[in-house]
Amino acid sequence: MTCKQVKPLLNQWLDGTLGPEQVEAMEQHVRACPDCAAERRALDAWRMACQDADEMPVPPTAAAAWRQAIREEARFMNEQPQTTKTRKPIWKPTRRTMAWMGVAAATLVLVIGTALSRGGQQNTPYMLYMATDEVAPQARMSKAMEPSAAKPELLMETEAPQAGAGESSAYSGGVLPVTSPDEPEYGPPNGLKIIRTASFELTSLTFDEDLAKIDALVKENDGWAGRRSISGQPFTAENGYGRTAYLTLRIPANKLDAFLTGVSGVGTVLRNDQDAEDISEHYADTEARLNSAILQRGHLEQLIGTTGKLADLIELQQALADVQYEIDSMTGMLRGWDSRVDYSEVSITLTETRQTTRILPPKPSFGQRIAQTFFDAINGMLAFLSDMLLFVVGIAPLLVALGIVGLIARAILRGRKKRKQRIEQKEE
Asked: How far, in Å, CA of 301 to CA of 31, rounded?
């Protein structure tokens, strides 16, 4: 500790109010510092002298003299004239003014609340100009895949070579690329299995003609319809909706691009989505498992021919039935994939539409605009008043609750004021 830290604590040290750690630190400093040691000795001697001194009683005349001085000072202050003037308020509202202020505040709350409850309602703009427009939607195409400009894929179905003696025959289906030296090779590279799909959303002003065009394209490209559904009725004066055709078509993969190009020229294309899925890996894996199952079936058939026990025969026949079920399942799966690879699925939605002409009213004159503005103002005021009434009805429960709380608070304040007055009267 330093001298600056020790000197303020000397009195507390002498009174014994410091902790043990502070006392030890101060004793170490006092033993090393002559100035602090001298000051401690002086304080200790002064405290001892004060403890040895006798108490001196206050003379009675002194007590009477200071009491008399206090009474004279109080009398002098009471006799002095009041020089402090009460500051008058700049403006003190009357009861009538307060009432009008309350009415104005309530009106402001109603107006603001009504405006907020209307919530952004906008009047319909007045049409000033004539215009003629078509209802037929504009063409917009979003393609997931553009039709390829390369040569179309040409795939041929071939039969798998017959198995020789002692060999098991695998699945005989499949789609192989053409390898004739006289013709160019088409199809996916390296014999990939690609499933292509497409979907169109079309609108047509000549529904029957465009539907006939689609049918001709299907026939021209050796396709067939898996689904064909037409709903609705032709446009009439009473019917304003028209017909819609839903088509699910199967088109040979080697002629899909030509078919898609033809459909893009029918009606108005709103949407054109195309997709391609590569199933080569799944196809090869399934085909390998099928070959393994066929080999397993051959071994089981050999075991059934050599076994002589009934229990073993029953168990082998059950195993053979399970393997045959797997073979049939995988064979059907491969045939389904071959069908989807050979024939792409195209979904088409053709909606009948028509052109309409809407005649807007002519531009009004200045007098008509004045009259229209006046009636709009009247209608707006009536609408605002009706909205205000609805707002008041909506907040009525809240107002009732606030009124009850106000009455209770007023009764409590009056009771406190009366009790205070009674206590003051008793004290007087």
From this structure: 114
